[in-house]
């Protein structure tokens, strides 16, 4: 992915193999195999996988979270 996207919910990811760079609005985090990352609601983000990088992530939509938690806005 090369363009920034805005998340509408919560994303929890896991680097399965290799290396991934996770960019938010102001920072870049280098994640290696075995690392877990979280992207919060309304954050701008993008991924940059290195040559052999593989990630897996679960994205919870805001509508789903709002039904489960009283204090989600």
Protein described:
GO terms for molecular function: DNA binding. InterPro entries: HTH-like. This is AraC-type arabinose-binding/dimerisation domain-containing protein. Keywords: DNA-binding. The protein has one helix spanning 62-68, and strands spanning 5-6, 9-17, 19-24, 28-32, 36-39, 44-49, 54-61. The chain has one domain (5-68): Jelly Rolls. The chain contains one helix and seven strands. It has a four-stranded antiparallel beta sheet with strand order 1-6-3-4, with no helix packed on it. A three-stranded antiparallel beta sheet has the order 5-2-7. The protein is mostly beta strands and 73 residues long. Helices cover 10% and strands 55% of the residues. The termini are far apart.
């Amino acid at each position: 992915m090369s363009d920034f996207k805005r998340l509408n919910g919560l994303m929890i990811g896991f680097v399965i193999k290799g290396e991934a760079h996770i960019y938010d609005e102001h920072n870049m985090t280098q994640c290696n195999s075995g690392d877990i990352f979280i992207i919060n609601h309304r954050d701008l983000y993008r991924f940059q996988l290195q040559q052999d990088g593989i990630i897996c992530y679960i994205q919870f939509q805001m509508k789903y979270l709002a039904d489960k938690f009283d204090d989600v806005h």
